[in-house]
Amino acid sequence: MESPPPPRPGATRRRARDLGIVVGSCGTGPLNTITDVPGVRVGHTTVRRPPDVHSGVTAVVPDLVGPRTPLPAGVFTGNGYGKLIGTTQLAELGALETPVLLTSTLSAFRVADALVGWMLERPGCEEVRSLNPVVGECNDGFLSDIRARPVHEEHVRAALDTASGGPVAEGCVGAGTGTVALGFKAGVGTASRVPDVGGRRFTVGVLVQANFGGTLRVLGRTLTPPSPGVAPDGPGPDADVGSCMIVVATDAPLDPRQLTRVARRAVFALARTGSAYSHGSGDYAVALGTRPDAGRPVADADLGPLFEAVLDGVEEAVLNSLLAASTTTGFGGRTVPALAADALVAALAGPVPGCGDR
Questions:
Q1: Which of 243, 275, 278, 321 is catalytic?
Q2: Cα gap 246→208, rounded to integer Å
Q3: What digits encode the pLDDT tens for the residues 289-304?
Q4: Residue 105 backbone phi and psi in degrees, to 5
């Protein structure tokens, strides 16, 4: 762990790198977000009606995507206890026709319908008669009244219409408003890397909707809620339930088979953070290429640095989702604590449990 730099101007919560927590040796893009990948925008709509509703929708929007201009994509299912709408066509054809949207479990179907309506209104889609919307979800029912299905068409359209490049809001926002991971309040997190791939530099960015069980690991250290100085207020969600949705974007010219390999590494990376991959967890990754015609294809033998970049990026994005989140009291009076940055730094600086001086 490096010495923490001063917090970023205007930052209300510090990201992992602001605390000196650096995952891997590969450099990041300018913002260390998925929007560092050229042509990728992100939009959020947060739906919050305290105390019972803490939900929303997040849109990852590649500029060039559409039914007439599909982008190469791959998908990987780490554990299939979830609803990733559109996955069969992604697996069969390796073609992404829409933005990728993330939301709450019981709102996923409304979100998919709203995405179809929005897409049919896009220029060039006047004669479209078939469309494959891609919508992922996590269950935010521990902190939000999930049966209310609070995410509606206007929220989806707002996320899509306001999607932009530049900084990406993290933590309790959009699809991450009510999510919980590894015993702490979590949410949306993002990161990027710029690896050298076969003598060429490309950008790979990731965005996670973190909502999974397990025991938090940071830089290989296991940390439970009491160990970073945060005591949970009441019981948390069952450790064997939860999910994580991951979106990976890259400007490297990869084909769908290679992007499927990338998606696998994204799900594998959750193990670094302490994921339990339990029976009740829906762990999915969608990987997409934004510039399939950007020069000669990447050889499989050259993919190692890009795989490592994805592993590092997902690990850091999960940490960012935790550090950006705020302690939340929600449905049924349940409270989930945030991961306290100062306590985390102190815990990482302390002795490793069970390892005394020799």
A1: 243
A2: 5
A3: 998 887 899 999 999 9
A4: -50, -60
Taking the C-alpha atoms of residue 343 and residue 275, their distance in angstroms, rounded to an integer, is 21
Pair 36, 192: CB distance under 8 Å: yes
Catalytic residue, chosen from 55, 104, 107, 281, is 281
Whether 243 is catalytic is yes
Instruction: Based on the residue annotation, tell me whether 25 is a catalytic residue of this protein.
Output: no
Residues 112, 176: Cα–Cα separation, whole Å: 18
Choosing from 36, 140, 145, 283, which is the catalytic residue? 283
Q: Which residue, chain included where needed, has tokens 């709408």?
A: 85
Which distant-in-sequence residues (6+ apart) come within 8 Å of 4 by Cβ? Answer: 14, 18, 19, 20, 345
Under 8 Å between Cβ of 330 and 143: yes
What is the number of residues in the chain?
Answer: 358
Alpha-carbon distance 29 to 31, whole Å? 6
d(CA 166, CA 163): 10
CB 138, CB 243: distance < 8 Å: yes
Is-catalytic flag, 281? yes
- Give the global pTM: 0.93
Q: What is the pLDDT of residues 304-334, one digit of tens each?
A: 999 999 999 999 999 999 999 999 999 999 9
Give residue for tokens 């990026």. 313
